[in-house]
Design brief:
The protein is mainly α. Helices cover 72% and strands 4% of the residues. A hairpin with a 4-residue loop joins strand 1 and strand 2. This is ABC transporter permease. It is found in: Cell membrane.
Length: 348
């Protein structure tokens, strides 16, 4: 085979690899529209949109973490803990026993408290990883158990149901985050807003460049003056905030908070990020690709449910999707290196 033909084939393969997530999404839409009744209905689209909002927001934070070469397994547990804290504040308020009073907060204040909780947990993850040199997998795995345990302790494993609030206490309105505006789920609107903000932050700011440089070569980033530990901590703070936001939306959609909410959602977030082109090796990723990956995960999940696929097989399929995505990513990296070497040889 001639050099020109090899180069042309490599270019075509690279183009297909870069657009693989869109291709997979289109194939899935066609497949489920044939195999699942009413898959192309408006109700199904809105249902998928509600789920994509949850996976997508989680995956935004996960994208930042993975780009730096890390991982965050605590995101699902933070979703559950955030929902439980919010639900408890709505139903029971905050009791200050030493003063003999119970404080009730408005919905905006509860949202702020929940987001701050997520930020604090993220900061703790970052500090453990940077200051104590603990591997991200171990640090966030431990935090996953801590957060899930605290969620259960908060209500002794019970559910906070019917989160409508009380007019007399001024804490009504929690249902807004699970509602629709002009027919569009509020969660999906929040996803779009956060995606734009974090995409700009990643691509148009010095902070974003630092995130990529750490994932590309941490030692070189340090030598170039990047405050690696500070950036890593901020990245895990972002992941914690995104998780808390998902906890707010999920509890609003369900009108209830349960300690088990968010279980295994970290796998959906990782899958969405990796499917969207974020490299597990670090240094590569886009928010836009992650959002498309979240749509792929949402379509797979809801499509399989509509086709009557059991929950156990769904877990198997999602696991295989993650492994396949990593294999394809590695193949793309090898092909890029091969094309770069070929280009250098031709320029000599």
């Amino acid at each position: 085979m001639s050099t020109d033909k090899k180069s042309s084939n490599n270019t075509l393969a690279m183009t297909l690899l870069k657009g693989r997530t869109f291709i997979v999404l289109i194939v899935l839409l066609i497949f489920f529209s044939i195999t699942a009744d009413n898959f192309l209905s408006m109700n199904t689209a809105l249902l998928i949109g509600k789920h994509v909002a949850l996976y997508g927001i989680l995956a935004i934070g996960m994208t930042y973490v993975i780009i730096t070469g890390g991982i965050d397994l605590s995101v699902g547990a933070i979703v559950g803990l955030g929902g439980m804290i919010a639900g408890g504040l709505i139903q029971k308020g905050l009791t200050l026993e030493m003063f003999g009073v119970t404080l009730y907060f408005s919905v905006p204040m509860i949202v702020l408290i929940t987001i701050l909780l997520g930020a604090v947990i993220g900061a703790v993850n970052g500090l453990i990883i940077t200051k104590f040199n603990v591997a991200p997998f171990i640090a966030t795995l431990g935090m996953m158990y801590v957060a899930r345990g605290l969620a259960n302790i908060h209500s002794q494993g019970a559910t906070y149901s019917d989160l409508k609030g009380y007019e007399a206490l001024g804490n009504q309105g929690w249902s807004f985050f699970g509602s629709r505006v002009m027919g569009i789920p509020v969660g999906l609107i929040i996803l779009v807003i956060l995606a734009v903000i974090f995409a700009v932050l990643l691509k148009r700011t010095a902070f974003g460049w630092h995130v990529f440089s750490i994932g590309g070569n941490e030692k070189a980033a340090k030598l170039s003056g990047v405050k690696v530990n500070k950036v890593k901590i901020l990245v895990y703070v972002i992941s914690g905030i995104c998780s808390a936001v998902v906890g707010i939306i999920a509890s609003s959609q369900l009108a209830a908070s349960h300690p088990a909410t968010g279980e295994s959602w970290e796998m959906n977030a990782i899958a969405a990020a990796v499917l969207g082109g974020t490299s597990m090796a670090g240094g590569v990723g886009t928010i836009g690709g992650t959002i498309v990956g979240a749509f792929v995960i949402g379509v797979i999940n809801d499509g399989m449910v509509m086709c009557g696929v059991s929950e156990f097989w769904q877990m198997v399929i999602k696991g295989l999707v993650i492994v396949l995505a990593v294999i394809i990513d590695q193949f793309q990296r090898n092909l890029q290196a091969k094309m770069a070497l070929q280009a250098r040889n031709e320029s000599k």
